Protein 1
Amino acid sequence: MALIREFIEDYRGKISHFQHLAEVCAYQCESALKRQGLRVLVTSRAKRLDSLASKVEDRAQEKNYQSIEEIYDDIVDLAGVRIALFFPQDQREVDQFIRSNFKVDSVKDFPEALGHPGAYPKQFLGYVGRHYRLYLKPDSLPPEERHLAEHVIEVQVGTVLMHAWAEVEHDLVYKSTGAFLSQDEYAILDELNGLMYEGEMALERLQTAAKRRINAEQQPFSNHYELSSYLNDQKRRALPGPECRFSVGRTDVLFQFLKTIGLNSVPALRPILQACSFSPEEEPLAQQIVDHLLVGDADLYREWDQARITVGAFDPFGTLYETVSCFSEDGGLGAFMRSWIAVEQVLGETLYKVLKGEPSDLVLDACAAENLRRAKQLRNQILFSCEPPSPEELERGEEFLRGFMDFLRQELAEPSLRRHQVR
């Protein structure tokens, strides 16, 4: 008991650290998932002292702890995040997001056998959800907070209904300090669990009905959640397997962009999607849609720029950069973008064939091709990222693009399409 008291006092001094760890993880989850157009509720917490003390006392009988460090190693939910889904079918997209953006240590699916002696023989499965033990990725954190990537976090994913039922059951059964509940109490909890399953079935039907309406709709999407629902449905049809690493990407800015240029509907998007690839190796679907539109009309760069600024001005998860024009003269953004657009206007679709290594009339040596790919990465970061490239990167990229344009002008004047030697 003395060791447990010592551990609890040590944790009391560190609880703010674990709270911050959970908040950072929750922020990364909520910002990305909502920007992708998934309806979720995300909460976070550090383990409460009373709950932790009870858990450690129970486990100490089996674990026979010898030090505080052993207890910390054994308790993995000191920092916890809960992702509650509006619609059960979105579990696949959330799973894909988690596996792509965190270092996942283990995954545990529920229900599990409770194993309580004398417990009521359940008619329903109980809690259904998926729990992850994971770590933040160091490159997702500012330098001063990269130590957070050393600590495990438990992330629980389930529907809003199942999480609500689990809270009731957990407090009554697991946290009960007295004897087991009566058979009547177990029976009522089981009945409530059945209602949750019925509720989840209703949510699935509601999501299916909404998709059916959206797919048949001739009118514009009402919001980026509807746009996301449509794009995710197309992705699921193209990639029906349970595991998929292909992302739809941000739909909030895409919705604003399509709305501005009058392409914010299923009929308008269908021909564009036919030109997109659903391969996991490809860029997110939203980005492919934007690329397809921009390469055909350079004037749309300004419309995209305005869309991202409009969304960034009110986005609670946005950064200061997302309210700055891609064509700002600060840091070399404008000069680089003008050079990139000039190259894109000259080459059109040929540019993207070269970048993908597909056969084309333009032949580049390996060094030039790599520099062109780096320039495309800078362009993507400017248009789609939360932070801009460094001024030094933009200066090098713009210098290459100017030299590349000189080569293209020469080729247009003497169309021999010689191998490009610009470094």
Note: The radius of gyration is 26 Å.
Protein 2
Amino acid sequence: MTSNPFKNSQSKIGAGTVLQSAMGCLVFGVLGLAGCDHKAPAAPPPAPVPVSVVTVKAEDVAITSEWVGTLDGFVNAQIQPQVSGYLVRQNYREGSSVSKGAVLFQIDPRPFQAALDQALGQVGQAKGQLGQAQAQLGLAKINVNRDTPLAEQRAIAQSQLDNDKQTAMQAEASVKAAEAAIASAQANVETARLNLGFTQVRSLISGIAGQATTQVGNLVSPQSVLTSVSQMDPIKVYFSLSDSEYLALINRARKGKGDLLKDASSIPLSLKLANGETFPQKGHIAFIDRQMNQQTGAIRIAATFPNPGNVLRPGQFGRVSADTEVRHNVLLVPQVGVQDLQGVKQVFVAGDDNKVHVLNVTLGSESGESWIVTGGLPSGSRVIIDNAQKLQEGVPVAPHAAAITPQTSSPAGR
């Protein structure tokens, strides 16, 4: 049988390929064993995390209480007419400042002018009657003086003298009646003059006049409210204290630690406006309501604040605050430095080794933007206030002093 040379060539090529593959595996195995004997270089240590720290220390802290307040005018006057009539003119611009005594509205004065003229005529008529009565009285007195000696001499009858005296008495009564009529007519004149003056509706206080509630041409009466005027410098701020807060302040005052509730108290009040800004003027307690509100269990307090330029307006809301207590030798930690882990309050502290240490702390009340720490934090600790997401126990840090301090509220004894 004839052999196939092409088939023999393929067999040789296949055998060579297998040999080459075996040699490659052997080489790779040797290199792999050599690679296993060489160790990889160690990773460099992590760079310290830059953090801001606040060093806490014991100090005296003023505890600030805060209440929601409602602003109102120091005096609010409703402007009402004292006579009835038609409005013929409005003399002020709504929302403008008005002075005490300024004429705000004019009521048609013509009927009241006519009443005054009539009253003046009645005075003249009464004075004329008084003149007649005085003339009759004078004549009666002359007759009495003339007939008295004649009656004594029996030159005339006694009855004639008696008639003269009776006439004199009647004339004297007429004089008194005329004088009373004059007084009554003069009183009518004063009333008519007052009513005429009341046609000019004036402001009884200085302040800001509100929107007119009645238009020109309307018929008004003493029951009509035309507008309102509010005195706004100073301005009142009303807020409420709970029963417990009120009693605590009273007890504090009895111990000689400051009486916030005293009129014109030396303890100032601050007012934070709706935009978060603190009003630059300080206020004081004006008065305390006479009783607790039985529905809310709170007592109403009124404070006054200077209001130059009438910046504050009635109806605004704000937050009234005051230092109500001073606590001694307490630690403050910024609120931004406190972490809440499932209800457990923690702080990150930079230790002397510049590594992070996690401490569980107990917090008291707020003081400004800080918490009062009642336990778990030694004095002198450097509390970390930023980069909390990068921190855990033992992480190296590069601490530097923060730009803020824990005492963000007013110092004690202000």
Note: Confidence is low (pLDDT under 50) at residues 1-37, 406-414.
Protein 3
Amino acid sequence: MGAKTRYLLAMAALLVAAAAAAFFLMHKQPHTVHPTPPSATAPSRSANAVCVLPGPAPVPPDGLTATAADMQLGHDVIQRFVEQLEHYQACLNNKIDHPAPGVTAKQKDTWTQQGDSAVDEANALAQAFSVQLKIFKAHGRK
């Protein structure tokens, strides 16, 4: 599976999670949790940029025991982490598309694999949150 296909799958998974979150937000009570803004910045256009893999990945809240505020905060934290993974992949793609002098095909392949792994991690995280959100909703919580 190519990098573009994986990227499209990640975006589809993110859209599913966003739709679930929108549904969740429409059916929950207001709360006062205000998470901090994302720390990731837009990818550098420099071929010599250092692409930083974010980590560690956040753990989705447990749908059996989480409160509505826990689920919202979990969604926000996961969404920021996925955005950071997207910036990481964009940085790698820029390095592949605009390589510095002396960059080998092997190095480009390594960057492609690292970007694909970031997309896989984003998909897995979005899916894990979606499962916990379904569990949360199945127990009648809003």
Note: Residues 18-44 have pLDDT under 50 and may be disordered.
Protein 4
Amino acid sequence: MPRGICPGVIHSLLVVMIKQTQKSSGFYTAKTTPYCVSEPAITEVQIHQQWKKLHFPVDFITVDGTPIMVVDGGTHNLNAGPDFRNATVLINGKIEHGDVEIHQDERGWSDHGHHNDPRYKNVIVHVVTHLSKSRSFRSFQFSPNYTIVLAEPPDSETGQENDSEFWCKTEPMPSHGGELLESLGWQRIHQKARVLSQRLQNRRTEDVWYRTLLRVLGYSQNTVQMEQVTTQVPFRVASEISLHGSPENVAAFVLGLTGLAEHFDIAVPFWDIAVSQYQLQSFSYFHWRPLRSHPQNHPVLRLYLLFRNLPKLHEISQLSPNEITAQMLLRQLHTSITIPEKYQKYFPAKTASLGKSRALEVVVNLWMPFYLARNHHNADDILREWSHDLPPLPVYAALQRFIEETTWKKVLPGRQLHPLTLQGLLWLRHHYCSEKLCELCPVLQETGC
């Protein structure tokens, strides 16, 4: 019996026909159709190649009628065991992780003894191109939960097979896309507030704030390293250093703490005194990852600025939107302090400065979520109104490339965005675009495109 739609076929048998659809040209979507079976025409090696060529995520319907989405088809396993490792499947709104096994028909699962082989216990998807006539699917009690029938790939001459792209590369962007990004930005702010709320339940407020501030000042390259400073120099010690140390002593403390003094063989007596008094240890000079972009971003300068201004920064963190405007807050954070001449040659720059852009990031990533966390998210409307006065932020280089490669550039033509819009774009890119979860994308769901 030839492949194709045949009169009288049993309609309860559902299989997957992979093809490009008009609804979402940016990724492959599975369609179902009655299917007449015959002996498989392709080998398992060819099925492997076909599976690897699919542009995930892909929607499927299993042979028992269950709709699933294979978010990630897994990594091809060249050793003994399942054909693909660490696949990701979305079923009934729940993410499941497991392996994928491929056969020409479903009998291969038991014929190859996989049901008695512990190496196959994590298989969640069984991919075949053919269902045998002799036995029904439901009689295979040892088969994985989700068995799908993969149709042969379309003829290349038809032009149906195209490279996968993000949805926003192929679909027109809605006119209110900027508003959606701002809404996603607030979701990101609230998520950070929830994390802070959990930490505040078990730790002192100033300790949680201090730790988060160090992370924000570290950029992605030094986030962990800066956070580790809080274990060596807790908030109480940092406050005493900041209150009672002269500029020279603070500079010596930072050089000793960061390992620069030992690396360059510099005498820093104040650090030696602090080590004895507070039982401190220095980090290795190679502990840090100096940023390539600008000397002001070096963690040594950030730490000097922190230990010079800690009481002031802590005081600002406790203000509410009713007590300080956005512009006033930024002016308070935007500071520049000269390094003492005695130690200038050991620092990356002669001044330590928290520029306007970084001050804005401190507001968005720390001050706003911290305010919501302390007020149990009951001040959302006040904070939203307050945030309207925040100036735009320059778009990071990686995000700018992302915008230019997609139709977001029609909605976001400038190189500066409101901080909440930027947060939304970061959220979207990280959670959906980078993972190619196009059908879960809130922009797609909101617009219906």
Note: The chain has two domains: 15-162, 191-389.
